[in-house]
Design goal:
Elements lengths: L2 H15 L1 E2 L6 E9 L2 E10 L2 E8 L2 E7 L1 H14 L6 H11 L1
Antiparallel strand pairs: 1-2, 2-3, 3-4, 4-5
Length: 99
């Protein structure tokens, strides 16, 4: 799955499932997968500061990435570090199925 397709899937998912935190300046949409008794989640968020991607493994925050270009560059690192839980084709493929 290439970066353009990943960004398109995540953007459509965000637009469909986003929720506000009350003041309508912060919007977020989480996507969590379960594998072998563990979880891997990314919370996609937008706020006046920009777009962020908060990464959680077993409900513990392991990274916070700002803006699409940096996030897309870090996908290789996420696959290397969390390979037993995260593979971009599987993660974003499941997200695509929800759309």
């Amino acid at each position: 799955m290439d970066n353009q397709e990943i960004q398109g899937i995540a953007t459509r998912f965000f637009e469909k499932y986003k929720k506000t935190e009350g003041d309508r300046t912060l919007w977020s949409a989480p996507w969590k997968i379960y594998k072998n008794g563990q979880t891997f989640e990314i919370i996609f968020s937008t706020c006046p500061r920009g777009t962020s991607f908060k990464v959680f493994v077993d409900n513990k925050k392991v990274d916070e990435i700002w803006e699409w270009p940096v996030f897309l560059e870090k996908l290789d690192d996420l696959e290397t570090t969390y390979g037993s839980l995260f593979h971009r084709d599987d993660y974003f493929g499941q997200m695509k199925e929800m759309l």
